[in-house]
Amino acid sequence: MMTIEQLVVKAKEDGASDIHIICGLPPKYRKSGDLENMAEEIVTEDYCMQMAKELSKTEKAFDELMIEGELDAADSYAGNRCRIHLFKQQGVPSLALRILSENIPQLENLGLPIGVLDLPKLHKGIVLVTGETGSGKSTTLAAILDNINHNYKRHIVTLEDPIEYMYKPDLCAINQREVGKDTKSFAMGLRASLREDPNVILIGEMRDRDTIETAITAAETGHLVFGTLHTGSAADSVDRMVQVFPEAAQPQIRLQLSMVLQAVLTQQLIQKKGGGRALAAEYMIVTDAIRNLIRTGNTPQIANAVATSAEIGGQTMDQALIRLVKNGLITRDNALHYAVNKEFVDRNIMY
C-alpha cells in the first residue's frame, strides 16, 4: 500500500482535493466533486492502524483517537499542507485528508463577486463566509486575510481548528492560535483575543452562543471579525446566529447584529463542463434596508433585498448560477440542481 507521502503526491498530480482511507475499500480521492479509486488494492485494518499511528504523531494523540473516536490535525506531506481528520468506524480508524493549496491564492483570482474585493478595506464589524463543508470557505478567508496582510498595517489574530493556511507576516503582525493546542475553545480564545490588541479576528467557526455573543461584542468595540457558518444563504445565517439565544434575548441580539453585520458571502462549488469546479456565490452587502429587516425579524425578505443590490455589488445564488450557465462554465441541469428558485433560474437561462 502507498505511504501517506505517496498518496498526497498522487492526489495532487491528479487534481484531487480529498483522500479517504476506509478499511475494506480501495483508497479513494475526490476529483471534481466525485469520489474515485486511487488504486485497486483493498485497505486492511492493519494499514488503517498504521496510518492512524503515523498521522497522530504521538502516542497520547493516538490514545485520544481510540478513546474519543476522532482527532483533528494539520501537517505538511510531500510539501503540501494538509488538514487531517481521523475517526473510528466499526472500531477501526478511517482517514479523511484535505489537501490545501501550497500558496494562498490572490483574492481577485477566486471568481468571487466584485464587491468582495472591498472586504479587506473594512475596519470593523462582522463578515460571514458560509456554505457546506468543502465549499471553499477557508480558501476565501485566507485570501482576504492575506490581502490585508500585504496592504495594511494591522494585528491579525486567528482562531482555527486546526490551522490550515500558514501566513507569512508582511505589513501585519499575525498570531495563529489552534483550538485544543493554544486555547481550549473558540469562545475562550475569542474572549482572550480582545485583550491582545487585535484589529482583525478570524473565528474558524461560529459554533455556539458564547462565541457568537463575544464576536458581536468584538465588532461593537471596533474590531473586524471574520467567521464561518455552515448555512446556505444570508437569511439562514442571520437566523442561525439569532436562534442560538433564548427567545427572550433574540430581539436584543437582532438589534445588535443589525448594527455590526457588514456582509455575508455564501459559496457553493459546482462541477464544471469538462472537469473541475466553478464557484457560485451569493453576496449580501448589509444596507440600511437589510439592517431594518434583521432588526425586525423579517429575514424571509432578505433574498429580495439582495436580488436588487447588483448596483452595489450584491447578488443572489440564483443570479450567480444563471451567470455561470450563460458563461458556458456549468450545465443547465447542474444550475437547476443547486438553484433556490428553480423556475426563476430556468426561465432566465433561456434569455
CATH topology name of the largest domain = Rossmann fold
Q: Averaging pLDDT over every residue, what do you get?
A: 94
> What helical percentage do the residues reach?
25-40%
Major β-sheet annotation: 7 strands, mixed
Radius of gyration: 21 Å
Name of the level-1 CATH class of the largest domain: Alpha Beta
What's the SSE pattern? HEEEHHEEEEHEEHEHEHHEEHHHHH
Overall number of strands: 13
Structural class: alpha/beta
Question: Which band does the percent of strand residues land in?
Answer: 15-25%
Number of helices: 13
Terminal CA distance: 53 Å
Number of domains: 2
Spatial strand sequence of the major β-sheet: 9-8-10-11-7-12-13
Give the uncertain stretches in residue-range form.
Answer: none
CATH architecture of the largest domain: 3-Layer(aba) Sandwich
Say which CATH homologous superfamily of the largest domain is assigned. P-loop containing nucleotide triphosphate hydrolases
